[in-house]
Amino acid sequence: MPPKAQAAGKGRGPAKRKLAEEFPPEEVLTDTSKKSWKLGAPIGQGGFGLLYLANENSSKTVGADAPYVIKVEPSDNGPLFSELKFYMRAAKPDLIQSWMTSHKMKYLGVPKYWGSGLHEKGGKRYRFMVMDRFGTDLQKKFEETGRRFPRKLVLQLGLRLVSFVVIKLDILEYIHEHEYVHADIKASNLLLSHNNPNQVYLVDYGLAYRYAPEGVLKEYKEDPKRCHDGTIEFTSIDAHKGVSPCRRSDLEILGYCMVQWLCSKLPWEDKLQDPLYVRDVKLQCRDNVSEFMSKCFSSQDKPDELQKFMEEVKTLSYTDKPAYQKLRSILEAGLKSIGAKDDDTLEFSSVVSSNGAGPSSSAKTSKRKKVVDYKEESDDEVDGSPAKKKRSLKKKAVKEMKTAGPKKTATTPKNTAARPKKALVEMGTQTTPGLKRGRGRPKKTQNH
Protein backbone atom coordinates (compact mmCIF):
# COMPACT_ATOMS: atom_id res chain seq x y z
CA MET A 1 0.00 0.00 0.00
CA PRO A 2 1.35 3.48 -0.80
CA PRO A 3 1.97 5.81 2.12
CA LYS A 4 -0.94 8.00 3.05
CA ALA A 5 -0.55 11.73 2.61
CA GLN A 6 -0.28 13.53 5.92
CA ALA A 7 -3.04 15.92 6.78
CA ALA A 8 -1.98 19.48 7.20
CA GLY A 9 -2.40 20.97 10.59
CA LYS A 10 -1.53 19.39 13.89
CA GLY A 11 2.10 18.39 13.97
CA ARG A 12 2.30 19.13 10.32
CA GLY A 13 6.05 18.78 10.21
CA PRO A 14 7.12 15.79 8.18
CA ALA A 15 7.69 12.38 9.61
CA LYS A 16 11.28 11.22 9.56
CA ARG A 17 12.23 10.58 5.95
CA LYS A 18 14.81 8.12 4.77
CA LEU A 19 17.46 9.57 2.53
CA ALA A 20 17.94 7.95 -0.85
CA GLU A 21 21.14 5.95 -1.20
CA GLU A 22 23.24 6.49 -4.27
CA PHE A 23 23.15 3.69 -6.82
CA PRO A 24 26.29 2.76 -8.76
CA PRO A 25 26.49 3.63 -12.49
CA GLU A 26 24.91 1.06 -14.82
CA GLU A 27 22.27 0.02 -12.26
CA VAL A 28 19.25 -1.29 -14.20
CA LEU A 29 15.69 -0.52 -13.10
CA THR A 30 12.61 -2.26 -14.52
CA ASP A 31 9.36 -0.34 -14.64
CA THR A 32 5.80 -1.64 -14.33
CA SER A 33 5.58 -2.27 -18.09
CA LYS A 34 8.72 -4.44 -17.90
CA LYS A 35 10.84 -1.87 -19.70
CA SER A 36 14.41 -1.61 -18.45
CA TRP A 37 16.27 1.62 -17.79
CA LYS A 38 19.97 2.07 -17.13
CA LEU A 39 21.22 4.69 -14.68
CA GLY A 40 24.09 7.03 -15.35
CA ALA A 41 25.71 9.48 -12.97
CA PRO A 42 23.61 11.20 -10.31
CA ILE A 43 23.14 14.82 -11.37
CA GLY A 44 21.05 16.24 -8.54
CA GLN A 45 20.11 15.71 -4.93
CA GLY A 46 17.24 16.92 -2.82
CA GLY A 47 16.13 16.24 0.72
CA PHE A 48 15.30 12.57 0.27
CA GLY A 49 15.64 11.80 -3.43
CA LEU A 50 18.24 11.54 -6.15
CA LEU A 51 18.09 12.35 -9.84
CA TYR A 52 20.09 10.34 -12.35
CA LEU A 53 20.86 10.58 -16.02
CA ALA A 54 19.28 7.57 -17.69
CA ASN A 55 18.67 5.80 -20.95
CA GLU A 56 16.86 2.74 -22.18
CA ASN A 57 18.85 -0.32 -21.18
CA SER A 58 21.50 -1.31 -23.70
CA SER A 59 25.12 -2.34 -23.83
CA LYS A 60 26.15 1.30 -24.06
CA THR A 61 27.17 3.35 -21.07
CA VAL A 62 24.85 6.21 -20.13
CA GLY A 63 26.67 9.33 -21.26
CA ALA A 64 26.36 13.05 -20.65
CA ASP A 65 23.97 13.32 -23.59
CA ALA A 66 21.35 11.00 -22.04
CA PRO A 67 17.80 12.17 -22.94
CA TYR A 68 16.09 10.96 -19.76
CA VAL A 69 16.38 11.40 -16.02
CA ILE A 70 15.11 9.08 -13.30
CA LYS A 71 13.94 10.36 -9.96
CA VAL A 72 14.45 7.87 -7.11
CA GLU A 73 13.38 7.91 -3.47
CA PRO A 74 12.78 5.30 -0.73
CA SER A 75 9.39 3.66 -1.33
CA ASP A 76 7.96 4.54 2.09
CA ASN A 77 8.44 8.27 1.44
CA GLY A 78 5.38 9.99 0.05
CA PRO A 79 6.35 12.90 -2.23
CA LEU A 80 7.14 10.98 -5.41
CA PHE A 81 4.03 8.80 -5.00
CA SER A 82 1.90 11.94 -4.88
CA GLU A 83 3.54 13.33 -7.99
CA LEU A 84 3.15 10.06 -9.86
CA LYS A 85 -0.63 10.21 -9.58
CA PHE A 86 -0.66 13.33 -11.72
CA TYR A 87 1.85 12.07 -14.27
CA MET A 88 0.09 8.74 -14.79
CA ARG A 89 -3.29 10.41 -15.33
CA ALA A 90 -2.33 13.45 -17.37
CA ALA A 91 1.24 13.29 -18.68
CA LYS A 92 1.53 10.12 -20.74
CA PRO A 93 3.36 10.84 -24.02
CA ASP A 94 0.51 9.75 -26.29
CA LEU A 95 -1.97 11.97 -24.42
CA ILE A 96 0.29 15.02 -24.64
CA GLN A 97 1.09 14.30 -28.30
CA SER A 98 -2.61 14.03 -29.09
CA TRP A 99 -3.23 17.51 -27.66
CA MET A 100 -0.27 18.95 -29.52
CA THR A 101 -1.39 17.46 -32.83
CA SER A 102 -5.05 18.44 -32.55
CA HIS A 103 -4.13 22.03 -31.59
CA LYS A 104 -1.19 22.35 -34.03
CA MET A 105 1.26 23.04 -31.22
CA LYS A 106 5.05 22.92 -31.45
CA TYR A 107 5.35 21.81 -27.86
CA LEU A 108 3.46 21.67 -24.57
CA GLY A 109 5.34 22.64 -21.42
CA VAL A 110 4.29 19.59 -19.39
CA PRO A 111 6.95 16.89 -18.78
CA LYS A 112 6.21 13.51 -20.33
CA TYR A 113 5.84 10.44 -18.14
CA TRP A 114 7.86 7.51 -19.51
CA GLY A 115 7.53 4.93 -16.78
CA SER A 116 7.76 4.16 -13.08
CA GLY A 117 8.11 1.26 -10.71
CA LEU A 118 9.74 -0.17 -7.61
CA HIS A 119 13.34 -1.32 -7.32
CA GLU A 120 14.91 -3.46 -4.62
CA LYS A 121 18.54 -3.24 -3.59
CA GLY A 122 20.27 -4.34 -0.43
CA GLY A 123 16.97 -5.38 1.13
CA LYS A 124 15.49 -1.89 0.59
CA ARG A 125 12.76 -0.78 -1.80
CA TYR A 126 12.85 2.39 -3.88
CA ARG A 127 10.22 4.13 -5.98
CA PHE A 128 11.33 5.67 -9.26
CA MET A 129 9.92 7.67 -12.18
CA VAL A 130 11.35 8.22 -15.65
CA MET A 131 10.91 11.63 -17.28
CA ASP A 132 12.44 13.96 -19.86
CA ARG A 133 15.70 15.66 -19.15
CA PHE A 134 15.65 19.44 -18.67
CA GLY A 135 18.12 22.28 -18.36
CA THR A 136 18.34 25.04 -15.77
CA ASP A 137 15.41 26.52 -13.86
CA LEU A 138 14.17 30.10 -14.03
CA GLN A 139 15.09 30.86 -10.42
CA LYS A 140 18.76 30.59 -11.36
CA LYS A 141 18.14 32.87 -14.33
CA PHE A 142 16.28 35.28 -12.05
CA GLU A 143 19.22 35.52 -9.66
CA GLU A 144 21.71 35.83 -12.53
CA THR A 145 19.85 38.84 -13.94
CA GLY A 146 19.84 40.74 -10.64
CA ARG A 147 16.41 39.45 -9.60
CA ARG A 148 14.60 41.15 -12.48
CA PHE A 149 13.33 39.85 -15.80
CA PRO A 150 12.68 42.03 -18.85
CA ARG A 151 9.04 42.98 -19.27
CA LYS A 152 8.79 41.18 -22.60
CA LEU A 153 10.07 37.97 -21.01
CA VAL A 154 7.64 38.18 -18.07
CA LEU A 155 4.70 38.52 -20.45
CA GLN A 156 5.99 35.68 -22.63
CA LEU A 157 6.25 33.41 -19.59
CA GLY A 158 2.71 34.34 -18.61
CA LEU A 159 1.52 33.49 -22.11
CA ARG A 160 3.29 30.12 -22.01
CA LEU A 161 1.38 29.29 -18.87
CA VAL A 162 -2.11 30.57 -19.65
CA SER A 163 -2.41 30.85 -23.41
CA PHE A 164 -5.50 29.41 -24.99
CA VAL A 165 -6.57 30.34 -28.49
CA VAL A 166 -7.94 28.35 -31.41
CA ILE A 167 -4.58 26.83 -32.32
CA LYS A 168 -2.87 26.81 -28.96
CA LEU A 169 -3.43 25.26 -25.57
CA ASP A 170 -0.68 25.66 -22.99
CA ILE A 171 0.35 24.52 -19.57
CA LEU A 172 -2.27 25.61 -17.05
CA GLU A 173 -5.20 25.17 -19.40
CA TYR A 174 -3.98 21.65 -20.24
CA ILE A 175 -3.53 20.75 -16.57
CA HIS A 176 -6.91 22.22 -15.62
CA GLU A 177 -8.67 20.41 -18.46
CA HIS A 178 -7.31 17.17 -17.02
CA GLU A 179 -8.88 17.83 -13.60
CA TYR A 180 -5.74 19.07 -11.84
CA VAL A 181 -4.29 22.29 -10.51
CA HIS A 182 -0.56 22.68 -9.88
CA ALA A 183 -0.67 24.83 -6.70
CA ASP A 184 3.07 25.60 -6.56
CA ILE A 185 4.02 27.70 -9.58
CA LYS A 186 7.33 29.55 -9.13
CA ALA A 187 10.56 30.17 -10.99
CA SER A 188 12.35 27.16 -9.52
CA ASN A 189 9.57 24.91 -10.86
CA LEU A 190 9.89 26.29 -14.40
CA LEU A 191 12.66 24.56 -16.32
CA LEU A 192 14.10 25.29 -19.71
CA SER A 193 14.26 22.46 -22.21
CA HIS A 194 17.62 20.67 -22.32
CA ASN A 195 17.70 21.01 -26.11
CA ASN A 196 15.80 24.25 -26.71
CA PRO A 197 16.32 27.20 -24.32
CA ASN A 198 13.18 28.89 -25.68
CA GLN A 199 10.88 26.18 -24.33
CA VAL A 200 9.72 26.27 -20.71
CA TYR A 201 8.28 23.34 -18.75
CA LEU A 202 6.34 23.41 -15.50
CA VAL A 203 7.60 20.64 -13.20
CA ASP A 204 7.13 19.45 -9.61
CA TYR A 205 3.60 18.12 -9.25
CA GLY A 206 3.98 17.05 -5.63
CA LEU A 207 1.25 19.48 -4.58
CA ALA A 208 -0.92 18.96 -7.67
CA TYR A 209 -4.54 18.58 -6.59
CA ARG A 210 -7.38 16.90 -8.43
CA TYR A 211 -9.98 19.63 -8.07
CA ALA A 212 -12.64 17.93 -10.22
CA PRO A 213 -12.42 14.12 -10.06
CA GLU A 214 -14.57 12.62 -12.81
CA GLY A 215 -15.69 16.17 -13.61
CA VAL A 216 -17.25 16.83 -10.19
CA LEU A 217 -15.97 20.12 -8.76
CA LYS A 218 -14.88 20.28 -5.15
CA GLU A 219 -16.75 22.74 -2.96
CA TYR A 220 -15.21 25.67 -1.09
CA LYS A 221 -14.41 24.76 2.50
CA GLU A 222 -12.03 26.49 4.91
CA ASP A 223 -10.02 24.46 7.37
CA PRO A 224 -7.73 26.29 9.85
CA LYS A 225 -5.70 23.11 10.28
CA ARG A 226 -4.59 23.14 6.64
CA CYS A 227 -3.50 26.74 6.14
CA HIS A 228 -0.60 28.12 4.09
CA ASP A 229 0.13 25.21 1.74
CA GLY A 230 2.67 25.85 -0.97
CA THR A 231 5.49 28.40 -1.15
CA ILE A 232 4.61 31.16 1.29
CA GLU A 233 5.40 34.24 -0.83
CA PHE A 234 3.39 33.00 -3.82
CA THR A 235 0.68 30.74 -2.42
CA SER A 236 -2.94 31.73 -2.95
CA ILE A 237 -5.34 33.32 -0.50
CA ASP A 238 -7.41 30.14 -0.69
CA ALA A 239 -4.39 28.14 0.53
CA HIS A 240 -3.76 30.65 3.34
CA LYS A 241 -7.31 29.96 4.53
CA GLY A 242 -6.88 26.19 4.39
CA VAL A 243 -8.99 25.76 1.25
CA SER A 244 -8.01 23.15 -1.32
CA PRO A 245 -6.56 24.76 -4.46
CA CYS A 246 -8.66 25.50 -7.55
CA ARG A 247 -8.09 26.99 -10.99
CA ARG A 248 -8.15 30.59 -9.75
CA SER A 249 -5.45 29.62 -7.23
CA ASP A 250 -2.99 28.78 -10.02
CA LEU A 251 -3.70 32.07 -11.78
CA GLU A 252 -3.36 34.09 -8.58
CA ILE A 253 0.00 32.44 -7.90
CA LEU A 254 1.11 33.16 -11.45
CA GLY A 255 0.14 36.81 -10.96
CA TYR A 256 2.38 37.10 -7.89
CA CYS A 257 5.22 35.43 -9.80
CA MET A 258 4.97 37.82 -12.73
CA VAL A 259 4.96 40.84 -10.44
CA GLN A 260 8.03 39.59 -8.58
CA TRP A 261 9.87 38.75 -11.80
CA LEU A 262 9.32 42.30 -12.98
CA CYS A 263 9.84 44.37 -9.81
CA SER A 264 12.18 42.02 -7.89
CA LYS A 265 10.29 41.86 -4.60
CA LEU A 266 6.74 41.43 -3.31
CA PRO A 267 5.45 43.71 -0.51
CA TRP A 268 5.24 40.90 2.05
CA GLU A 269 8.65 39.30 1.45
CA ASP A 270 10.27 40.90 4.51
CA LYS A 271 7.91 39.01 6.83
CA LEU A 272 7.69 35.55 5.30
CA GLN A 273 8.20 34.09 8.77
CA ASP A 274 4.70 35.31 9.66
CA PRO A 275 2.13 33.50 7.46
CA LEU A 276 -0.82 35.37 8.95
CA TYR A 277 0.77 38.70 8.06
CA VAL A 278 1.43 37.48 4.52
CA ARG A 279 -2.18 36.34 4.22
CA ASP A 280 -3.56 39.66 5.45
CA VAL A 281 -1.39 41.74 3.10
CA LYS A 282 -2.45 39.58 0.17
CA LEU A 283 -6.09 40.13 1.14
CA GLN A 284 -5.49 43.89 1.16
CA CYS A 285 -3.78 43.67 -2.23
CA ARG A 286 -6.67 41.69 -3.69
CA ASP A 287 -9.15 44.26 -2.39
CA ASN A 288 -7.17 47.10 -3.98
CA VAL A 289 -5.08 45.82 -6.88
CA SER A 290 -4.14 49.34 -7.99
CA GLU A 291 -2.63 50.11 -4.59
CA PHE A 292 -0.79 46.78 -4.67
CA MET A 293 0.77 47.68 -8.02
CA SER A 294 1.76 51.09 -6.67
CA LYS A 295 3.69 49.38 -3.88
CA CYS A 296 5.61 47.34 -6.44
CA PHE A 297 6.23 49.84 -9.24
CA SER A 298 6.82 53.53 -9.74
CA SER A 299 3.87 55.35 -11.33
CA GLN A 300 5.53 55.73 -14.73
CA ASP A 301 6.62 52.08 -14.86
CA LYS A 302 3.44 50.39 -13.66
CA PRO A 303 2.57 47.54 -16.09
CA ASP A 304 -1.14 48.00 -16.76
CA GLU A 305 -1.46 44.48 -18.18
CA LEU A 306 -0.48 42.86 -14.88
CA GLN A 307 -3.03 44.95 -13.01
CA LYS A 308 -5.71 43.95 -15.52
CA PHE A 309 -4.61 40.32 -15.28
CA MET A 310 -4.99 40.32 -11.49
CA GLU A 311 -8.28 42.21 -11.65
CA GLU A 312 -9.63 39.52 -13.99
CA VAL A 313 -8.47 36.71 -11.67
CA LYS A 314 -10.08 38.56 -8.76
CA THR A 315 -13.52 38.19 -10.39
CA LEU A 316 -13.34 34.39 -10.41
CA SER A 317 -15.34 32.37 -7.93
CA TYR A 318 -13.94 29.15 -6.47
CA THR A 319 -15.50 26.90 -9.11
CA ASP A 320 -15.32 29.24 -12.13
CA LYS A 321 -13.52 28.21 -15.28
CA PRO A 322 -11.08 31.02 -16.13
CA ALA A 323 -11.40 32.94 -19.39
CA TYR A 324 -8.01 31.87 -20.71
CA GLN A 325 -8.45 33.63 -24.01
CA LYS A 326 -9.20 36.93 -22.25
CA LEU A 327 -6.16 36.52 -20.00
CA ARG A 328 -3.99 35.86 -23.02
CA SER A 329 -5.35 38.95 -24.74
CA ILE A 330 -4.43 41.05 -21.70
CA LEU A 331 -0.82 39.84 -21.78
CA GLU A 332 -0.57 40.20 -25.55
CA ALA A 333 -1.78 43.80 -25.22
CA GLY A 334 1.07 44.35 -22.75
CA LEU A 335 3.58 43.10 -25.32
CA LYS A 336 2.09 45.39 -27.95
CA SER A 337 2.32 48.40 -25.61
CA ILE A 338 6.11 48.01 -25.42
CA GLY A 339 6.49 47.36 -29.14
CA ALA A 340 7.12 43.64 -28.76
CA LYS A 341 5.45 40.38 -29.72
CA ASP A 342 5.64 36.77 -28.64
CA ASP A 343 8.29 35.62 -31.13
CA ASP A 344 9.03 32.32 -29.35
CA THR A 345 12.46 33.62 -28.29
CA LEU A 346 13.07 34.01 -24.56
CA GLU A 347 15.71 36.64 -23.84
CA PHE A 348 17.28 36.56 -20.39
CA SER A 349 19.31 39.70 -19.91
CA SER A 350 20.48 42.00 -17.17
CA VAL A 351 17.70 44.47 -16.48
CA VAL A 352 17.99 48.22 -15.87
CA SER A 353 15.37 50.93 -15.61
CA SER A 354 14.05 50.20 -19.13
CA ASN A 355 12.67 46.98 -17.74
CA GLY A 356 9.40 48.64 -16.94
CA ALA A 357 9.91 48.02 -13.22
CA GLY A 358 10.16 50.52 -10.43
CA PRO A 359 13.13 51.05 -8.16
CA SER A 360 14.31 48.32 -5.87
CA SER A 361 17.47 47.14 -4.17
CA SER A 362 18.84 44.07 -5.90
CA ALA A 363 21.92 44.01 -3.72
CA LYS A 364 19.79 43.98 -0.61
CA THR A 365 17.33 41.36 -1.77
CA SER A 366 20.05 39.05 -3.02
CA LYS A 367 21.28 38.70 0.56
CA ARG A 368 17.92 37.71 1.97
CA LYS A 369 16.67 34.17 2.21
CA LYS A 370 15.80 33.14 -1.32
CA VAL A 371 12.82 30.87 -0.83
CA VAL A 372 10.79 30.38 2.31
CA ASP A 373 8.00 27.89 2.08
CA TYR A 374 6.03 25.29 3.93
CA LYS A 375 7.65 22.35 2.22
CA GLU A 376 8.88 19.31 4.06
CA GLU A 377 12.47 19.54 5.19
CA SER A 378 15.01 16.83 4.65
CA ASP A 379 15.76 14.05 7.05
CA ASP A 380 18.70 15.84 8.59
CA GLU A 381 16.26 18.08 10.46
CA VAL A 382 15.06 15.75 13.16
CA ASP A 383 15.51 15.02 16.86
CA GLY A 384 15.08 18.42 18.47
CA SER A 385 16.17 20.19 15.32
CA PRO A 386 14.52 23.03 13.38
CA ALA A 387 12.00 20.63 11.81
CA LYS A 388 10.77 19.64 15.28
CA LYS A 389 10.67 23.27 16.34
CA LYS A 390 8.70 24.12 13.19
CA ARG A 391 6.01 21.61 14.12
CA SER A 392 5.61 23.21 17.55
CA LEU A 393 5.44 26.71 16.11
CA LYS A 394 2.99 25.60 13.43
CA LYS A 395 0.63 24.37 16.17
CA LYS A 396 0.78 27.82 17.75
CA ALA A 397 -0.06 29.45 14.44
CA VAL A 398 -3.06 27.16 13.96
CA LYS A 399 -4.27 27.83 17.50
CA GLU A 400 -3.95 31.57 16.95
CA MET A 401 -5.87 31.29 13.68
CA LYS A 402 -8.76 29.66 15.51
CA THR A 403 -8.88 32.27 18.27
CA ALA A 404 -8.21 35.34 16.15
CA GLY A 405 -10.64 34.52 13.35
CA PRO A 406 -10.00 35.24 9.69
CA LYS A 407 -10.76 38.98 9.88
CA LYS A 408 -8.25 39.85 12.58
CA THR A 409 -4.70 40.75 11.77
CA ALA A 410 -2.99 38.30 14.03
CA THR A 411 0.69 37.81 14.43
CA THR A 412 2.60 34.68 15.15
CA PRO A 413 5.67 34.17 17.30
CA LYS A 414 8.94 35.03 15.64
CA ASN A 415 10.33 32.34 13.36
CA THR A 416 6.94 30.64 12.92
CA ALA A 417 7.50 29.84 9.28
CA ALA A 418 9.33 26.86 7.95
CA ARG A 419 13.05 27.24 7.51
CA PRO A 420 14.10 28.28 4.05
CA LYS A 421 14.28 25.44 1.62
CA LYS A 422 17.82 24.19 1.28
CA ALA A 423 19.50 24.80 -2.01
CA LEU A 424 19.38 21.68 -4.08
CA VAL A 425 22.73 20.35 -5.18
CA GLU A 426 23.29 20.66 -8.90
CA MET A 427 25.77 18.34 -10.56
CA GLY A 428 26.01 18.71 -14.30
CA THR A 429 23.25 20.43 -16.23
CA GLN A 430 20.11 19.10 -14.58
CA THR A 431 18.54 20.82 -11.61
CA THR A 432 16.36 19.06 -9.10
CA PRO A 433 13.21 21.02 -8.33
CA GLY A 434 10.57 18.64 -7.15
CA LEU A 435 12.76 16.36 -5.08
CA LYS A 436 11.79 18.26 -1.94
CA ARG A 437 8.07 18.03 -1.79
CA GLY A 438 5.53 20.37 -0.38
CA ARG A 439 3.80 19.63 2.85
CA GLY A 440 1.25 16.87 3.01
CA ARG A 441 -1.26 16.76 0.17
CA PRO A 442 -4.55 18.49 0.95
CA LYS A 443 -7.31 16.19 2.00
CA LYS A 444 -10.29 15.99 -0.29
CA THR A 445 -12.88 18.50 0.75
CA GLN A 446 -16.28 17.29 1.77
CA ASN A 447 -19.57 18.77 0.69
CA HIS A 448 -21.38 20.99 3.19
Descriptive notes:
With 448 residues, this protein is of the alpha+beta class. It is built from 13 helices and 14 strands. The chain is globular and about 60 Å long. The protein starts with 27 loop residues before the first strand and ends in a 22-residue tail after the last strand.
Quick recap of the structure?
ATP binds at residue 71. The protein has 448 residues and is an alpha+beta fold.
Any idea of the CATH class of the largest domain? Mainly Alpha
- The best one-word shape is globular
Count of DSSP strands: 14
Radius of gyration: 21 Å
- Element-level helix/strand string: EEEEHHEEEHHEEHEEEEHHHHHHHHE
Please state the structural category: alpha+beta
Mean pLDDT: 78
Biased composition (Basic residues): 387-397, 436-448
Subcellular location: Cytoplasm; Nucleus, Cajal body
Protein name: Serine/threonine-protein kinase VRK1
Region (Disordered): 1-27, 350-448
SSE map:
Blueprint: E1 28-30, E2 36-45, E3 50-56, E4 68-74, H1 79-90, H2 93-102, E5 113-121, E6 124-132, E7 134-137, H3 138-144, H4 151-162, E8 164-165, E9 168-169, H5 171-177, E10 180-181, E11 190-193, E12 200-202, E13 209-210, H6 237-240, H7 247-263, H8 275-287, H9 289-296, H10 304-314, H11 324-337, H12 362-367, H13 386-404, E14 425-426
Helix pairs in contact: 4-7, 4-11, 7-10, 8-9, 10-11
